[in-house]
């Protein structure tokens, strides 16, 4: 069974699963696992690793509209160096500071492959998941797509400093909080835009059509196959949100980043400019 | 730098670190990482793995006196089978049910070595950590020691069913909640009794003396070196607690498991029956 089929099976078994974070009694909880061979290309600094690992969990909180309470990490590695751990903690703290929460520690584990697990906890006033999109709603995205793909390409081509900058993305906590009261469905774009749209459509039992140009990170424009990378690569952490058309202007005024309308919720089918948009993610190997 | 030195360094850097769970705004958060080569001897079932992984994080909540809100897990493995995942979720749910909380899902990750990260979240009314032990306090332990060592020995000797039973330990949530209002210091015994006592003594800037027989799991008695295993092996998840002497009777009445007095908090030095008790844990390899 592949990872997607396995996730689908677990989502069926656990009522609270299926959104970016589970919510119990108004508390949002999420956990993620990253490791060298899949998630950290050569050139990622320890500070970036701390930032990004924690940011991935904070992005899950953003996607359910949560106000973060704190984040923790478990750091598994064959050896521990003071410099690496201090840099990791620095990055973890910086991203928590950036969204107004606290990095409060975690655990260490001797592990053959460097493996980082992170968890974040938040409070939720307006619960939003993937299941409420309604035909006629607008589909919007925060910021721009393709940042994760650009970072991977920059690591590949040795532009390490710029790649690290892009890899230290800003979790869209403030945007998630501002959107939650009006959003009908929301998730982050970590699996890529195409797969995210299919997941919202499946959870909400609706369709989605997107049209026109997408907001694409300028950093990606120097590479080939830009549109495909921006649509399917993933490793982006923007919010994909559906909301009533008449709520867009007000949402835009309250969201502190660009909010671009990319499409409309329909009755069925996920399409782009009239053609079916395949439910595919890019298979990427950072080595 | 070894794991202990690295943990000490991180504890110095992060105010909230140092206790079994971090506490922010009345919310306790903990994360743990377990993996095949260190934590799951041959013979551990998938159900036991789910139970124990989540139980380790719930034990951290117990140790700070928290009331659990929910628990999550990230499951990394080279392949996913429906049977294994279903059994894992069953075990994770059972231990949550056993302590009155909910298993609310998590994440999957393709990983060369099976690696489980768990996080648990709770609410704290009476904050208790490792730093408040005061000379004259009694030192008590819940349940009995050596259960983890007995399980490891039983796995080694092929008594798999009994070993799995012992491995599915009961996190001392109810005991932790009952003890928190009177405890001056508390932690779980996952690093072994000896190391736990040293950690409380160091955090509280005091000494501890223990005297007489320890409550030892009858399952361990069939093996050699019982006392040493019960004292230093770890992989036990009882609570080690210090509390004023005149609070013991009342605590005993409210704690739903045995609460055995094993010693007294002193000014300095960690001793057993008058001799120094080394700050040592057993190095164990489950393979």
Automatic annotation (TrEMBL), chains A, B:
Region (Disordered): 267-287
Domain PurM-like C-terminal: 135-269
Positions bound to substrate: 39, 235, 282
Record-level GO BP terms: thiamine biosynthetic process; thiamine diphosphate biosynthetic process
Top EC class, one word: transferase
Binding site for ATP: 106-107, 130, 190
Binding site for Mg(2+) 1: 32, 107
Residues engaged in binding Mg(2+) 2: 32, 60
Domain annotation PurM-like N-terminal: ranges: 18-124
Pathway recorded for this protein: Cofactor biosynthesis; thiamine diphosphate biosynthesis; thiamine diphosphate from thiamine phosphate: step 1/1
CDD domains per record: ThiL
Pfam assignment, any one: AIRS_C
Signal peptide: none
Basic and acidic residues biased stretches: 270-287
Xref: PANTHER family: THIAMINE-MONOPHOSPHATE KINASE
Note: Reaction mechanism of ThiL seems to utilize a direct, inline transfer of the gamma-phosphate of ATP to TMP rather than a phosphorylated enzyme intermediate.
The protein's name in its UniProt record: Thiamine-monophosphate kinase
Name of the gene this protein is made from: thiL
């Amino acid at each position: 069974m592949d990872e997607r089929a396995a996730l689908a099976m677990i989502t069926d078994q656990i009522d609270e699963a299926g959104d970016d974070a589970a919510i119990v009694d108004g508390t949002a909880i999420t956990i993620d696992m990253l490791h060298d061979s899949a998630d950290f290309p050569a050139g990622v600094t320890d500070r970036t690793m701390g930032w990004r690992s924690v940011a991935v969990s904070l992005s899950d909180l953003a996607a359910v509209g949560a106000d973060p309470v704190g984040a923790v990490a478990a750091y598994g590695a064959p050896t521990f160096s003071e410099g690496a751990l201090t840099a990791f903690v620095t990055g973890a703290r910086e991203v928590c500071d950036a969204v107004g929460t606290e990095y409060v520690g975690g655990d260490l584990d001797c592990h053959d492959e460097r493996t980082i697990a992170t968890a974040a906890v938040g409070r939720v006033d307006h619960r939003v998941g993937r299941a409420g999109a309604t035909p006629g709603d607008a589909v919007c995205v925060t910021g721009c797509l393709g940042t994760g793909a650009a970072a991977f390409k920059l690591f590949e081509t040795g532009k390490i400093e710029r790649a690290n900058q892009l890899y230290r993305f800003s979790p869209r906590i403030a945007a998630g909080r501002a959107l939650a009261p009006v959003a009908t469905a929301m998730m982050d774009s970590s699996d890529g835009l195409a797969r995210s749209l299919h997941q919202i459509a499946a959870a909400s039992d609706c369709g989605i059509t997107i049209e026109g140009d997408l907001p694409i990170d300028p950093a990606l424009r120097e590479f080939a196959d830009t549109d495909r990378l921006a649509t399917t690569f993933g490793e982006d952490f923007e919010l994909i949100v559906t909301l009533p058309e008449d709520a867009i202007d007000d949402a835009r005024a309250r969201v502190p980043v660009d909010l671009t309308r990319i499409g409309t919720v329909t009755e069925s089918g996920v399409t782009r400019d009239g053609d079916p948009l395949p439910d595919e993610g890019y298979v990427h190997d950072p080595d």
